[in-house]
Amino acid sequence: xxDMNATxxxxxxxxxxxxxxxxxxxxxxxxxxxxxxxxxxxxxxxxWGRVLTVMDENMxxxxxxxxxxxxxxxxxxxxxxxxxxxxxxxxxxxxxxxxDAMNSFGIIRKEPVLVVGGGLVTDVAGxxxxxYRRNTNFIxxxxxxxxxxxxxxxxxxxxxxxxxxxxxxxxHAPIHTFLDFNFLRTLPTAxxxxxxxxxxxxxxxxxxxxxxxxxxHCEEIINTKFGRxxxxxxxxxxxxxEICKEAIRVMLKLESPNLHExxxxxxxxYGHTWSPLHELVPATPxxxxxxxxxxxxxxxxxxxxxxxxxxDEHARLLELFSRAGLSIDHPDFDEDVLEKxxxxxxxxxxxxxxxxxxxxxxxxxxxxxYTLENLKRILRLHKKxxxxxxxxxxxxxxxxxxxxxxxxxxxxxxxxxxxxxHAKQSLKEVNGxxxxxxxxxxxxxxxxxxxANGVSNGINGYxxxxxx
Length: 468
Prior knowledge:
The chain is α/β, with parallel strands linked by helices. The protein is built from 15 helices and 13 strands. The strands form 4 sheets. The chain has a 6-stranded parallel sheet, with helices on both faces. A 3-stranded mixed sheet has the order 11-12-13. Strand 11 and strand 12 form a beta hairpin. The N and C termini lie far apart (47 Å).
């Protein structure tokens, strides 16, 4: 919900308006959110006397009975709308399907839609509610590690359009988010590892205490699915809860002053400089957590070369990635991809690199000055370092499969082919219509041998340095 304050001032030629919107939304940590004894979610719908729930087809098959029983217990009729599963369903057609469901349901202006699922579902349904009457409320129940730890913090909602990922979207906050980590009990370990990367991201740049806990308990956290697996000790559950709550708190502290991304120096963009392109380069795309871990590990090597992070801290960070089974390097993360991805991110970041870099561990420095020659030299160094690590820096279960879409049906080959086709199309668009093999034959936007113009002083006391 939000409150508006505005002033209207008469000028010589007309009027000037200055408006300020206050955004209010909250998070509640609640295990077993759909257990009948937990009335918090039901209480949000007492006024309305009914519930429209949006999820994907797979989530409905797994959880619809429990959700139905929960709302039956609280005497609230529930209607389900199940959207298709997978990245191909993140489109206008799925959005319009949700709009049709809201129309059929007769949603009232302030009545909140309940959205249950991973980041893809909350993105599409959140955008649908943003479009419907320009601003319809929704309540979010994320069900994956990335959804719980990372996506839940953001108010960005979107769908893909044509060959563009998240090209149509809005900034639209849910009025409430319920964080139930017991959903992780049924999450594949590969997906737990995938989300673990996001916690390394925020802790290594902004929360040393949490980083130390990850370092100390890495394997047990992943193996017990954040202490939620049956038989897990009370201690590892307590530690996992502390890690998750602190990671969310820190991300909210960093992001809430910049919810609409007006400021482009963003600490939580660590690992998201080269990964948006590199994630799609392999024949089968990398999981997001592995793509950003490669980016983070290489960025840490850049930081070490700049003197922002010590050799011991650098080794400790890369060792944590390795122990978690996350990727540190990949054969397709080469100099051609580095060059192309640098040019692409400059467009996103208004002509500056804005490279969020641990410096020192637990804090962040933004790097703006660079040369591609030096970035490539550091990449060669990084690959030498990675080659001496376990698995030569490769990750475990690093590639996208059906579990990334949430689809557990039997048509695995069809799903995999769809994933590959989507990635190939997206990569071609980023490359300006040229395949990766052609990247070495030309330059992009004049940035090949140049510098990003200007040096930012960062935000919140963070610094900026250069790669020269």
